[in-house]
Amino acid sequence: MATSLMIRNSIFFIIFACLWSLHDAKDTLKPGDTLNSSSTLVSASGKFVLKFVVQTIDGSNTSYIAILRDKQGANKAWIGNRNSPIPYPSSPLLTFDLSNTLRITNQVGNPIVIYSPPKNISSTNAFEAILLDSGNFVIREASSVNGSTNGVLWQSFDYPTDTFLPGMKLGVDRRSGKNWSLLSWATSYNPAPGLLSLDWDPNGKQLRIKQGGVVNWTSGVFDDGKFPFIFPEVSKQRYNFSIISNKDEDYLTYSAVGDPSDPEPEWVLYSRGTLFEYGAQVAITNAQDCDGYNTIGGCVRTDRPSNCTGKFGDEFVQKNGYFKIKDSSNTSRATSWYVVSSVDCKVLCWQNCVCLGFDTPADNQSSGPGCRFWSVDCEFIENSTGSGKTSSVFVLSSLTTPANSPPAKKNGRKWLWVVIALPTALLLTMFCIFGYLLRRRMLSGLGVMERK
Ligand SMILES: *[C@@H]1O[C@H](CO)[C@@H](O)[C@H](O)[C@H]1NC(C)=O
Ligand SMILES: *[C@@H]1O[C@H](CO)[C@@H](O)[C@H](O)[C@H]1NC(C)=O
Ligand SMILES: *[C@@H]1O[C@H](CO)[C@@H](O)[C@H](O)[C@H]1NC(C)=O
Ligand SMILES: *[C@@H]1O[C@H](CO)[C@@H](O)[C@H](O)[C@H]1NC(C)=O
Ligand SMILES: *[C@@H]1O[C@H](CO)[C@@H](O)[C@H](O)[C@H]1NC(C)=O
Ligand SMILES: *[C@@H]1O[C@H](CO)[C@@H](O)[C@H](O)[C@H]1NC(C)=O
Ligand SMILES: *[C@@H]1O[C@H](CO)[C@@H](O)[C@H](O)[C@H]1NC(C)=O
Ligand SMILES: *[C@@H]1O[C@H](CO)[C@@H](O)[C@H](O)[C@H]1NC(C)=O
Ligand SMILES: *[C@@H]1O[C@H](CO)[C@@H](O)[C@H](O)[C@H]1NC(C)=O
Ligand SMILES: *[C@@H]1O[C@H](CO)[C@@H](O)[C@H](O)[C@H]1NC(C)=O
Ligand SMILES: *[C@@H]1O[C@H](CO)[C@@H](O)[C@H](O)[C@H]1NC(C)=O
């Protein structure tokens, strides 16, 4: 009887020890430690992991060192070697060597140095590379365990890729002369630097999405704790923004507020232009719709050259009516022209200085979809009662009487994360209960053993 109890207890003990060693995964590399392609650093409470991930780009596999949340389908919040992909197959190693250099080595190619300390470093203290629960990977003095930034030599938060996590900064670091900004991936599969950036404009107090220096989208000016184009009605329930401005730095940061059981915020700038809230699974903006002619939802318009038709503040409005040629005797240029293909008619018309508007004639079945553009030699005749000859056209707003345009719809976006959060929370709760029961059972088993 006693033997069987002991055997049972030992089994529990072994399971417990296994679980414990799994749970007790490392979050730190000490000088001399390496991380291989099949092992993982796990932050203290298990929120984030640091490991090698494989991306398949154009059919070939490459490895990257990445920080991501420890769950299925997690966003890769940080990539350490986006400029130096590691060809496959190879078994890369992340090494924090005895001289406090952090580097990736593999069988092919040169080592990729992520951090090397300055030659004149004065401290005699021991250093460590630790993955924090914020998702920040930090090289610091091993003694500064009080969470202050004292003794920090390097941190991944200073080298953002395409993701803005709570606690990260966007803005200007005057000490390093560097700006903290996001740079999208090159494509959906390729982490190499892409075309789009998200940065903080400290003077204008707004976030901006840019493509090659052109501002396509802004958040609107920060005021009263929120941005006009970042869920102004509800953002304070989720984001606590702070703007820090002093002689060393000028930046925006944020922390998560609200229900701690909601998925944490995680902003990702995708290569196509969507700024996505990965935690809530909702788009903050689709900058790809900001093609230069509208101002919807924070889009920035590239205005027509000043000698063009139209006025400042013009945009296209949809009207019933038709274009009529003013003077058919002056035929030195086309009064209307047709472009076949599924192009964006608005953009083409906006970019063409003499274009007043366009329609999409349905009767041109032989040539497929397209746009018919109308030039400055035409005038627009509005006829909202008409039928037959009149049809729906898009016209520069300055050519029409600003009449009964429908009131702009209130931006009533609802948070979607409840939909995501509920099943996740349920699942987590189940796991927790299971874990709790198992652990209690094991602990009581241990207790019995100790008492013997
Ligand atoms: C990676 O490291 C772990 C622990 O350090 C070790 O158990 C494992 O065998 C290593 N894997 C490879 C492929 O070297
Ligand atoms: C790339 O990796 C995936 C999964 O990791 C694997 O299924 C695939 O065969 C690999 N492709 C090549 C070309 O190695
Ligand atoms: C090390 O050198 C850099 C310039 O190369 C200097 O900015 C820094 O203050 C020096 N640090 C120490 C501890 O001397
Ligand atoms: C944290 O530790 C550093 C030394 O490592 C010390 O200078 C600093 O005052 C400590 N901060 C707090 C808040 O205790
Ligand atoms: C950093 O941002 C500031 C302010 O937006 C800007 O004036 C400066 O040109 C930027 N510097 C770099 C290196 O991008
Ligand atoms: C927002 O952040 C600031 C600074 O980090 C803090 O003082 C404040 O208490 C936070 N507010 C809320 C509602 O969490
Ligand atoms: C940004 O604006 C430029 C100029 O209007 C345009 O060419 C580009 O396609 C836009 N980018 C996105 C992502 O919308
Ligand atoms: C506007 O000016 C540009 C050059 O300055 C010229 O090429 C274009 O034809 C002009 N457009 C009109 C409608 O006058
Ligand atoms: C005829 O068109 C030209 C532009 O091609 C314009 O300069 C001229 O004023 C027009 N003449 C009349 C009578 O509208
Ligand atoms: C139909 O498309 C052709 C070009 O494919 C164009 O020449 C013609 O004017 C169009 N017809 C109408 C009614 O828009
Ligand atoms: C509008 O169209 C209808 C039918 O085509 C016509 O009877 C009416 O006179 C038109 N009104 C104007 C202002 O052109």
UniProtKB/TrEMBL annotation:
For this protein, the parts annotated as crossing the membrane are: 415-438
- Bulb-type lectin domain span: 26-152
Q: Which residues form the signal peptide?
A: 1-25
Keyword annotations from UniProtKB, A to Z: Disulfide bond, Glycoprotein, Membrane, Signal, Transmembrane, Transmembrane helix
What PANTHER family does the record tag this protein with?
BULB-TYPE LECTIN DOMAIN-CONTAINING PROTEIN (PTHR32444)
Provide the protein name.
Answer: Bulb-type lectin domain-containing protein
This protein's species is: Malus domestica
